[in-house]
Design a protein that fits this description.
Layout: E1 2-3, E2 6-7, H1 13-21, H2 66-86, H3 89-116
Antiparallel strand pairs: 1-2
Helix pairs in contact: 2-3
Amino acid sequence: MTYGDNTGYGKTLSDALTDLQTPGDVGASIDTSGGSTTPPPTSTSTTPPPGGSTSTTSAPPPSKSIDQLLSELQQAYAALNAAYNSHDQSKIGAAQAKVNEIAGELAAAQKSSSSTAPKPTPSPSR
């Protein structure tokens, strides 16, 4: 998964999102004890979105729940797979942009929920 200049890899979408937010080497948070994984590509190329604009903007503040965003991300990945099957570069580019947009919103939502989540208070034991 790629968002902006950051890349994250994982066995699941959740693992990839965690790796995306973890500073350090890409894929460093992958647990390799469960079998083999595909190594990350050594180079990537990006195609500007349709319209030629390559400017980047910050993701808007999250207004959706993490569950809603995960559901949207699953739908966006399904649309991306369908676009790959169509071999239509404009559909692939649009679908990839949507995946990146939702992934950014999800990362922002996870970051804000972890910083605003109430800290558990220990209760006395008997």
